[in-house]
Amino acid sequence: MPETEVVQRGLEDVVALESRICFIDGRQGRLIYRGYDIRELAEHSSFEEVAYLMWYGRLPTRAQLAELQNLLVSLRVLPKPVVELIERIPPESNPMEVLRTVVSAMALSEPGETKPGASSISGALRLTAALPTILGQFHRRRAHLPPLAPRPDLSHAGYLLYALLNREGTELEVRALDVALILHADHELNASTFAARITASTLSDLYSAITSAIGTLKGPLHGGANEQVMKLLDEIGTVDRVEAITQAKLAKHERIMGFGHRVYKVEDPRATILRRWSHKVGEAKQDLHYYDLLVRLQEVVHREKNLYPNVDLFSGSIYTQLGIPHDLFTPIFAVSRITGWTAHVLEEYDDLRLIRPKALYVGPTDLTYTEIGTRS
Ligand code: ACO
Description:
It is globular, with a radius of gyration of 22 Å. It has helices spanning 38-44, 47-56, 62-74, 80-88, 95-106, 121-142, 156-165, 171-183, 191-201, 206-217, 225-236, 242-251, 269-284, 289-305, 312-322, 329-350, and strands at residues 22-25, 30-33, 36-37. The two termini are 31 Å apart. The chain is an all-alpha fold and 376 residues long. It has 2 domains: 11-221 and 325-350, Orthogonal Bundle (Citrate Synthase, domain 1); 225-322, CATH 1.10.230.10. It has a 3-stranded antiparallel β-sheet with strand order 1-2-3. The longest helix is centred in the middle third of the chain and has 22 residues, at 121-142. It binds acetyl coenzyme *A. Acetyl coenzyme *A binds next to loops. The site of acetyl coenzyme *A has 17 residues, from loops.
């Protein structure tokens, strides 16, 4: 092995491919989808509009958006074998494992779309439309309740809330969830998107790529952090305890979830927007308990470690106030990120190059095989 080989642990700062989907300016704290700043998208667009932008690379006209919305609505009904599968899943299962398993099983109902490298937006639409129904049906199953019929009259965010909670959200609640979905739609070559692109780069199919992505998002260093943030807030309990508990954790070199980012060196712009929504939703519910804890936590962690909030710091407080159970937070991330994942998989198919890095071998090379009976 040449001595000049350098290992970029975690592929940090390695530029692996070209993409037209998402740009992160980690120094300025800007996030751009297909040329549009997420601050504008979060202010003015809807999740469906952003999904169109992800897949087609441009904002839709009114007619194009209506067509996409109709398609998504029509695909909310799951194939019968998939419904039957959800009914057989043990109720105590981890919802991310359920999502991964059911998305994988969805492929069995769509054999035409799982040809190697089959490049089609229809698979992306089908999966995007199906995720709220899958989650909702599993969530009801574990409460021993019958599945709800999909509601064609609700937006994607409105339907997600309905499917999970069996109630229509207020305008503010639905908009809060819509904004959260917009903000999670893509984030360049994050670990789960990279996993999806690696799978697609072997000319495997979209469903396999998304199954890889869901398994990767499940990890607490990626998608699971907002759930951990809520656990920490509940452990802290009151604002006056934030300082001491945070200090104690940092002294033990524990990580405080919801802070730090591989790419952002300043505050994650998604956190800035979600902080405002956490406040808005808290105000509407007349309960700023979590918001106040988070703001104090943010002050202490910044002062002690010079770390800024990431997207996961405030999202959990919003979902909790909507009444969504903590173990559904990461699946909600997937409900949104599926648009980015699928856009990246389609982009990978269009400019395919097998992704296959190298390892620097640091083990021995000159051992001699010994018979099993002679080994100690
Ligand atoms: N709490 C305490 N210390 C931290 C944190 C944190 N959240 N994040 C980084 N640090 C410290 C590390 O301990 C390390 O300190 P050291 O140099 O004294 O050992 C230093 O900052 C650098 O940390 P790295 O792990 O090298 O930075 P990396 O770029 O790999 O980390 C990551 C990025 C994994 C997100 C990290 O900040 C982290 O673990 N955060 C908490 C988990 C989290 O919130 N994940 C969600 C990320 S956003 C997303 O995926 C949607």
